[in-house]
Amino acid sequence: MHNKKSKIELKKNLEHEDFERLNLSFYKYCLIDNPKNLRNKLYFDLIKLEIIGRIYVSEEGINAQVCIPKHNLEVFKSYIHSIDFFSDIKFKHAIEEGTSFSKLKILVRNEIVAYKIPKDSYDMKKIGVHLKPIDFHRSIKEKDSVVVDMRNYYESEVGRFKNAIIPNAHFSKELLPKVAEILNGNEDKKVHLYCTGGIRCEKASSYLIKKGFKEVYQLEGGIIQYAHDMKKNDLESEFIGKNFVFDDRMGERVTSDIVGQCHQCKSPSDNHKNCKNQACHILFIQCNQCAKKYNDCCSEPCNQFLQLDLETQKKLRKDKNKKVTSAKLSSKFRPKLYKLFNYWE
Ligand SMILES: [Zn+2]
Ligand SMILES: [Zn+2]
Q1: pLDDT computed for residue 182 by the predictor
Q2: Ligand 2 centroid to 291 CA: how many Å?
Q3: Ligand nearest 327 Cα, by number?
Q4: Ion ligand 2: residue ranges with CB closer than 5 A
Q5: DSSP 3-state of 34
Q6: 275 Cα–ligand 2 center, Å
Q7: Rg of the chain on CA atoms, in Å
Q8: In angstroms, what is the span from residue 23 Cα to ligand 1's centroid?
Q9: pLDDT score at 328
Q10: With the CA atoms of 204, 206, 207 and 208 taken in that order, what torsion angle do they form, in degrees rounded to the nearest 10?
Q11: Where does 184-299 have alpha helices with state H?
């Protein structure tokens, strides 16, 4: 069960819709006996509600980002709540709306958060204390508090909590051991974790507790909920810049601060994109000027490759001449990285 239309075709169809869509995300850790059955049921029912997005189901739970026709919002919410495991799921609305997906994808995975750590290094029955955004906002300013960004490098590159520890990890399996290493000796401090929507902190807090950290807190609802609540309460956000998102929008603006810089000319920019050369497709940050100069490519070789006729491009891709097809900016921004991580939130 899946959609066979091309992405361009699907996008065109979406443009002609005469109704509004809303972006929503949710997750739940719970034991699911038969993720495949659940996957098929969800696909069958959600396609009827014209829902698009990306959902992961695994034996440990569900992780979903969906784009819903506004008129189906309530039906959708009660449908999800009608499923046994999901009766208490909380939905998070996006900070900024916009077209996020072109079709519905529901995939069965081993884990809903791919930290790739051994099963005995955490215990999901012992997780960090959930703090409501407003309490988190106050708590991080208290003495002996540390704040840790539980996301990947490229996410914190465009937005982060002021004074947060950025683990600088490029691979999912590196992240948790690295955080434990950085925090080593601070087991008595109040450790505050945050991520996009909260899902990653559940497992991360469990891992740190098992490592001997005594006070571990997690931002309930993640950056998404935090941004909403700061606005609602008219408080100055401690999170600055953009919230990176794993869909076509690539980011939601939280504050006007430009935290990142263009990977090519180093001027301030927080505009993530994939290299226009499909053979490269690397994820990187590019300012508008460089976008013009390099034709939305990550480098001059990629730009030149793109100027070749399609037949030649095809041939070169087959030759696997990596020098031509994918000139990497630096090993840090390998396109594989993006694929590896995009089943987070
Ligand atoms: Zn630039
Ligand atoms: Zn490129």
Answers
A1: 94
A2: 12
A3: 2
A4: 275, 277, 280, 282, 298, 302
A5: coil
A6: 5
A7: 21
A8: 30
A9: 43
A10: 90
A11: 199-210, 222-232, 288-293
Alpha-carbon gap, residue 343 to 65, rounded angstroms: 10
Residues annotated as catalytic are 195
| pTM attached to this predicted model | 0.85
pLDDT (0 to 100) of residue 301 = 86
Question: In whole angstroms, what is the distance from residue 175 CA to residue 187 CA?
Answer: 18
The model's pLDDT over 45-87, given as tens digits with 9 standing for 90+, comes to 999 999 999 999 999 999 999 999 999 999 999 999 999 989 9
Positions of the chain with pLDDT lower than 70, given as ranges: 1-4, 319-345
Nearest to 69 by CA among 23, 13, 5: 23
Ligand 2 geometric centre to CA of 168 (Å): 22
- What residue has token string 């090519």? 264
Q: How far apart are CA 61 and CA 315, in angstroms?
A: 43
Counting ligands in written order, the one closest to the CA of 329 is 2
The stretches of the chain forming alpha helices (DSSP H) are 7-15, 35-48, 73-82, 133-139, 153-156, 172-183, 199-210, 222-232, 288-293, 300-307, 310-319, 322-325, 335-341
Compute the distance between CA of residue 337 and CA of residue 244 in angstroms, rounded to an integer. 15
Q: Which ligand is nearest to the CA of 266?
A: 1
Ligand 1 midpoint to CA 98 (Å): 25
Q: At what angle do helices 73-82 and 35-48 cross, to 10 degrees?
A: 160
